[in-house]
Design brief:
alpha/beta, 5-stranded parallel β-sheet, about 525 residues, 17 strands, elongated
Length: about 525
């Protein structure tokens, strides 16, 4: 009696593990079967619903791979699928052979021949079948059922692994595509474009374009509300990592005792309450970008761990001995002066230098010339869509007011002001498709009124008759010029003292004076151009 040796089954198992892809593994399986059992053709078919689909075959015409076999239309296949063990058909079996006329080396109807089918079960579920044909009658009659069952089990396991891997690869590909689509959708929805035409913004955009394609870690500095997160997202979007995740971490919001776990992860049982292992932000951002907002708020212990991650590309989850390798680009942001924090001992100098390979400073809105009006238009359009308004515009008086306010809260404050003003404008105008936002809708945001209320007493202000023909802008400039001149005179030409009297900062006052054409000479003489 013929039999399949144990060594043959072992060799078959080993060869199946060598395939680089499904087709290689399937062909290795068929090669191994033909070495163990002499046959003229062999086919591996997968069960998909009520249909058998060829996955791989040898000895059959190439077009057979494109065929689909409905089980109820092929009695031999139906018999194999209904069995739990190998099925051998008699040489004179009258059931039609599905592979008639399809053997490569034989034309016409098959003569007397041997046919055998192996149902491939895994965990009591039929995955497919394996068929063998030989032009030699009774070629398969002498193989023990037990050996054929072992062959079926190996083939079923191989098929199960291949199908599972294919499914996982397909799911992973779908997930990656969906993730990339969501990334792009979020970028467009959240407004990825940096709005502005000022020289300060043009310089910022140029810096972003230069450094974004690199892998440099970047420190983004700027006041609260200037748009540091938008700069970080722009850097990520323009980098080769754009299809990978950008993970956001608000360092100021993490409790000090959970910082390491949050950033580097932990294993189960690492500390009280750690009932399951958890990936940290560095691991989640592997291959992509990690944005550490308000990094100046991190404790020194966490800073040292971040430094190690940046230097060695390694992290160590809390409670784990093994070190893990990661590939992460770090973008950090802060509104603090980190050099001062270093002097105070609150921030590590080595981490600062590691982060600030290419530092980027986001300018405050007051240094961006007329960008406030452009941004107002952008936020108006967003508000229009959210509120369902057909047309929403900014009145000229409101435009002038927005462009002359110093915006201590920067872009974030402007966004909130516009949203409130749009709501008020809609509430005041129930009729019509065009709604205009006016100074009245903006409310008490009036830099001129603030300056007037905080200016020195009238006895110290040289009065000036305003000419209505000059227009609103020039008349207002003249009034501001009077306030600044009076404040400087009263303060003895001390810019800082004058700024305090006007309730603004020195830099703002000097910029305003420059715009108004006011100069103070070394002899404390005022020139107005």
């Amino acid at each position: 009696m013929q039999d399949i040796s144990v060594s043959t089954l072992i060799d078959m198992t080993i060869s199946l593990a060598r395939g680089d892809n499904d087709q290689d593994r399937f062909n290795n399986l068929l090669d191994a079967i033909r070495k163990a059992i002499q046959c003229d053709c062999v086919a591996l078919l997968s069960l998909q619903g009520d249909t058998l689909v060829p996955l791989a075959m040898q000895g059959l015409t190439r077009d057979t791979l494109g065929r689909r076999y409905k089980i109820d239309q092929h009695p031999r296949f139906a018999h194999i699928c209904a069995s739990k063990t190998a099925v051998r058909f008699d040489s004179d079996c009258e059931l039609p052979d599905p592979f008639d006329n399809l053997l490569i080396d034989h034309d016409g109807d098959l003569p007397m021949h041997s046919c055998m089918g192996l149902p491939l079960y895994y965990a009591d579920k039929l995955l497919g079948i394996l068929t063998l044909d030989s032009l030699t009658p009774d070629a398969f009659d002498h193989f023990p059922i037990r050996s054929l069952d072992a062959l079926s089990a190996i083939a079923a396991s191989s098929l199960k692994v291949a199908l599972t891997v294919s499914q996982l690869e397909h799911q992973a590909k779908q997930t990656q595509q969906r993730f990339e689509e969501l990334n792009e959708e979020a970028w467009e929805r959240d407004g990825g474009e940096i709005i502005g035409n000022s020289a300060a913004i043009q310089a910022l955009k140029a810096d972003i374009e230069v450094v974004a394609p690199s892998n440099f870690n970047i420190l983004i500095h700027g006041e609260t509300g200037v748009g540091k997160e938008l700069v970080a997202r722009s850097l990520h979007h323009l980098s080769p990592r754009r299809k990978q995740p950008m993970v956001y971490v608000n360092c100021a919001a993490i409790p000090e005792n959970l910082v390491e776990s949050e950033l580097f992860g932990h294993v189960r049982g690492a500390f009280t309450g750690a009932d399951m292992s958890r990936l940290g932000k560095f691991a989640l951002a592997d291959g992509g970008t990690l944005f550490l907002d308000e990094i100046g708020e991190l404790p020194l212990a966490a800073q040292s761990k971040i430094l190690r991650a940046l230097q060695n590309n390694e992290i160590q989850p809390v409670g784990q001995d093994k070190v893990e390798t990661i590939d992460v680009r770090v973008l950090a942001a802060t509104n603090r002066d980190l050099k001062q924090e270093i002097d105070k001992g609150h921030f590590r100098s080595d981490l600062y230098h590691r982060l600030s390979v290419y530092p980027i400073t986001v300018p405050p809105l007051r240094e961006r010339d007329e960008d406030s009006v452009l941004l107002a238009g952008y936020f108006l359009e967003q508000a229009r869509r959210k509120l369902g308004i057909v047309q929403l515009k900014l009145g000229k008086d409101a435009q002038w007011l927005l462009s002359n306010y110093n915006w201590p809260g920067n872009v974030r404050e402007l966004e909130h002001v516009i949203n409130r003003a749009a709501l008020k404008a809609r509430a005041r105008r129930h009729q019509g498709t065009l709604i205009t936002v006016s100074v009245e809708d903006i409310g008490e945001l009036q830099s001129l009124a603030n300056l007037a209320s905080s200016a020195p007493s009238k006895t110290h202000v040289a009065t000036h008759t305003l000419d209505p023909e000059l227009g609103l802008r020039e008349s207002t400039d003249q009034y501001q010029r009077q306030l600044v001149l009076a404040a400087l005179t009263k303060a003895g030409f001390n810019w800082a003292k004058a700024a305090r009297a006007l309730k603004t900062d020195r830099a703002n006052l000097t910029r305003l004076a420059k715009r108004l054409g006011i100069q103070v000479t070394t002899q404390h003489q005022i020139k107005v151009s």
